[in-house]
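A protein record pairs a chain with a discrete description of its three-dimensional fold. The shape at a given residue is found from the number at the same position. Here is what such a record looks like in full:
>
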Amino acid sequence: MYRKQSNIDFKYFFGLKVTEVNTDKNLPLGMAFENAGLLIECPWRLQVSNEIVIGYSDCIQAYDKYTHKNVQTILMGKKIVNIFHFEEVSDLVVEFEDNIFLELFHDSNYFEGWQLRGDNGFYLFTLPGGSYSF
């Protein structure tokens, strides 16, 4: 399957550092960057050097071992180096320094999946069924 990347310009986010990660287990994973934010309400995984170190399922099924605090430990202070957005189903990959990738997988026909916003007026979010609005 070929996945087409969108033409959305994400350069505003490049170089921004993670300043906060939501660690409340009763809320969706979310994070703040300098002048931006990301709210995740869909499955996700965090890869470091091509190894999945934590994912959505870990936090749900093995909550005694894996929490958003694990994500916080890995991502705090890391800079965004690239963002990839795939049009067909609005998957998003945020690449951080040190070969770290946060991958988001929109998986609902009924709910929104994630929201990426910048203090510059940038606002991209997924819609039910996998489409997106910008």
User: Anything to note?
Assistant: Residues 109 and 129 are 4 Å apart (CA to CA). Residues 68-75 form the longest helix (8 residues). The mean pLDDT is 94. The chain is about 10% helix and 40% strand.
